[in-house]
Structures are given as structure tokens and as C-alpha cells.
Design a protein that fits this description.
Number of domains of chain A: 2
Number of helices of chain A: 6
Structural class of chain A: alpha/beta
Protein name (chains A, B): Ribosomal RNA small subunit methyltransferase E
Subcellular location (chains A, B): Cytoplasm
Number of strands of chain A: 11
InterPro entries (chains A, B): Alpha/beta_knot_MTases, PUA-like_sf, RsmE, RsmE_MTase_dom, RsmE_PUA-like, tRNA_m1G_MTases_N
Shape of chain A: elongated
Organism (chains A, B): Flavimaricola marinus
Helix content of chain A: 25-40%
Domain Ribosomal RNA small subunit methyltransferase E PUA-like (chains A, B): 6-44
CATH architecture of the largest domain in chain A: 3-Layer(aba) Sandwich
Oligomer: homodimer
Chain lengths: 222, 222
């Protein structure tokens, strides 16, 4: 038996108009996906009965997406796409050239839930509080490799190298990284700079393209 | 000397407030990119003088993107992304399960121009009038290979095969292809079905992911 929160009950019974007896798919990130039946339907609460497991629990690859938050709509979009592409953690980073509007982590986390429901994932990546890139790098565990989409490498595409294991994809802000950031990243031996073609990609496009390359090399697309 | 259209003059002098003597980058799809100087600035007309070529003319690879138009905002988005990723032609196709709102080709073409300006391309892909997928296939020149993003292949990723030459990437509608369409496409020897990971991607995500795989295998990202 799974009790529903008030927003869940509102969505299922107020918005979607489900009644008692209706069937739906549920997941909680720990027990796979289940067919569940509505056994109590009120506007403010409700209860589901899990009937049968339909998917085993699987996790995303141990991949983070770090990106510099941009305009609200495109930030929402990057979170949606990161979930579809398959990441374990989404970390907004503030760079020297980030023109950061306020990032509403709770709203981004809600987008991540919706995207997971939409794409058939049975987990929801965590959206972390925004942090300064410099601080993130100060505390970095060098065991986690970084794939950095780098405009300065434009046109010189080479296949992703490195090794299987924890990774993070890092996408810069639309103005690029600052010279200081670029120097620091270039000097880290766990950072691999990757060209994403001869044109300048927007950050959202770059995120999907970089995640595609990673997923087909090291991830769960293989 | 390059005379400006009224909308161009309005944008440069009304919106961007450029004055005589200002410099800007221009391209026409045939002569590369040039630095140009404003020599006449009026609200309804204007004249530029080309000063120096800054990029040679290059074209996109001979790649088409065919996709089933979806909600307006996401269709706009797919056009923008196709330009950034590098395609020669964008062809909206109506499939059995396409819930087609009206497609405004002139508006999509304007989006393509903006995206080209943004990403540093020196050409603008043509946006074709929407056509039924069945008719497009009736008239298909089998010399052009098709890479088809196929949900039914989910999880079974294999590197893109085929050969260098003209290609089209085909992305289905969010409800997938109909069984009849799927059978027909599966029977065509110039169609290659490609899995795009274990999750169900939205059409816009699938387009970018498929274009990434094509560009790194056969395109101008190599």
C-alpha cells in the first residue's frame, strides 16, 4: 500500500480525474516499476495498492552533468534532457562568465521527476544546489573523470578516451569559460577536453551532444 | 555594397541601434563571412560595405533532418538544433501518428536564419514544406541512406554503419511510427535503424542525439 501526498492526490484525482480502481505505473527509485491500483481517491489524499512489478530497479550510470545555469527556460530544458539522456546527478555550477539568475532547485527537481516519468526511467537524478565551479574543483575527487565540452577545440574531434568509472560532463556558459578557468581545467589530468563540431553550440545542445558521446562510449547506451 | 531589406534595416538600426560606421559580420551562403561597415542607416533601408572576408564559404554535410512536427515550441527548437548540429535541409514529415498542428514554414525558416547567425554557420539550411512520409518514401532516391531513430531498438545500441555519402536522419513522432510505417521502413535496404539508449527520448532530444552520432561518424565533426 502506498499513501499519496496531497500534490500527488491533487494531480491524479483533480487533474487527471482517475477514480478508484484505475491502474497506473509507479516507481520510488528503490523497488523498480509497479502496476498499482487506486484504492482510495480523495482530493487531498489517496492510497495505491501495488499489484505487480513491471520493471526491475535499475540505476543511471555514475555520471554527473555540470552546467552553468542560463535563461530559465533553457535551464529547465537542460534538466529535462539530462534525465532522458541518463545521468545520476545534475549540478549547476557558477562560472566566471555565468550571468546567474536565481536557480530554483526545487522547481528543477520537480522537472526532473516529470522527465523521469515521461522517459520511463525508474529513478530521479538529484539536482544539487548551485556551487561555484572553482569550489567544486577545489574539492574534486580525481577518481571522477571530467569530459569538458570545449569551444576552443572546435573542429578537432577525437573519440572520447579515458576509462570506465565515475564521470562528469562539464558544459560551459554561453560566453565560454574564462581564461583562468580554462587554464585550470587544462592542467587537470582527469579532465578531457572534447570538441563538439565546427559550429558554436548553445549550452543545451552541447549538453545533449556530449551526453550522447559519453553514453555510447561508457554508459548504458552500449 | 550590400543593400538591406526593410526588416534587416529595422533590426539593425531600430532594434540594435547601429549607426553609420558600425561594423558587423555578414554572410549570404555563397561568399563566406565578411566584416562589413554600415554606410547608410535609415529605419527602412540601409547599405553595408563589405570590407574583408573573415571565413571561407563552407557548406553543411549533405545531410537532411526529417522529423514529425510536434508542439510549436518543440518544433522551433528542433529547427534551431538542426542548424547548430549541421544539416543541409530540414524536412517536416507527416506520419500516421503525427498530430500535426499547422506548420508555418516561413517562421521556421526565420528560426533557421537566426540559429545560423548564432552558431557561426555561413549557410542557412532550407526548411521544406511538410510532406507525408509515405509520399516522401515513394519518391526516395535510394542513393540517400536513412538513419532512423527507433524506439523498438531501445538498449541495443550498435555503431552506425553504412557508407559516406548523402544521408537523412529520420525521427519519429512522440507516439512512434505506426506498424505499417515501421514495416515499410524495416524493408528498405537503405534504412538503418539505430537505438538511442534504454530510455524513451522526446523527439527533440532524439534529433540531437542522432545528429551527434551521424556527425561524428560521417559528418563535419570528424
Amino acid at each position: 500500500m502506498v499513501p499519496l501526498s496531497q500534490p500527488q492526490a491533487h494531480y491524479l484525482f483533480g487533474v487527471m480525474r482517475l477514480a478508484e480502481g484505475a491502474m497506473l505505473s509507479v516507481f520510488d527509485g528503490q523497488n523498480g516499476e509497479w502496476d498499482a491500483r487506486v484504492v482510495e481517491a480523495n482530493k487531498r489524499r489517496g492510497m495505491l495498492e501495488c499489484v505487480e512489478q513491471t520493471k526491475p530497479q535499475t540505476g543511471p550510470p555514475d555520471l554527473w552533468l555540470m552546467f552553468a545555469p542560463i535563461k530559465k527556460a533553457r535551464t529547465d530544458f537542460i534538466v529535462e534532457k539530462a534525465v532522458e539522456m541518463g545521468v545520476a546527478r545534475i549540478l549547476p555550477v557558477l562560472t566566471d562568465f555565468t550571468n546567474a539568475e536565481r536557480v530554483r532547485v526545487d522547481r528543477l527537481q520537480a522537472h526532473a521527476v516529470e522527465a523521469a516519468e515521461q522517459c520511463g526511467a525508474v529513478y530521479v537524478p538529484e539536482v544539487a544546489e548551485p556551487q561555484k565551479l572553482a569550489k567544486v574543483l577545489d574539492r574534486w575527487d580525481s577518481f571522477r573523470q571530467i569530459m569538458m565540452g570545449d569551444e576552443a577545440q572546435a573542429g578537432r574531434f577525437a573519440p572520447l578516451t579515458g576509462s570506465v568509472g565515475p564521470w562528469a560532463v562539464l558544459i560551459g556558459p554561453e560566453g565560454g569559460f574564462s581564461p583562468a578557468e580554462r587554464d585550470r581545467l587544462a592542467g587537470l589530468d582527469y579532465v578531457q577536453r572534447v570538441a563538439l563540431g565546427p559550429r558554436i553550440l548553445r549550452a543545451d545542445t552541447a549538453a545533449i551532444a556530449a551526453l550522447t558521446l559519453w553514453q555510447t562510449t561508457y554508459g548504458d547506451w552500449r
